[in-house]
Amino acid sequence: MEVLNERSTAFGLAQRTKKNLKHIELARANGADVHEVTQIVLSVLGIVIIPWEWHLKDRFTEYILEDLYANGWPRWNITVGHSKTLSDLTHMLRNATAHGHYKFSSDERDPKDVWLVIENIKNRKVTWQAQISAADLKTFCYRFLQVVENETG
Question: How many angstroms separate the CA atoms of 114 and 105, rounded?
Answer without folding.
Answer: 6
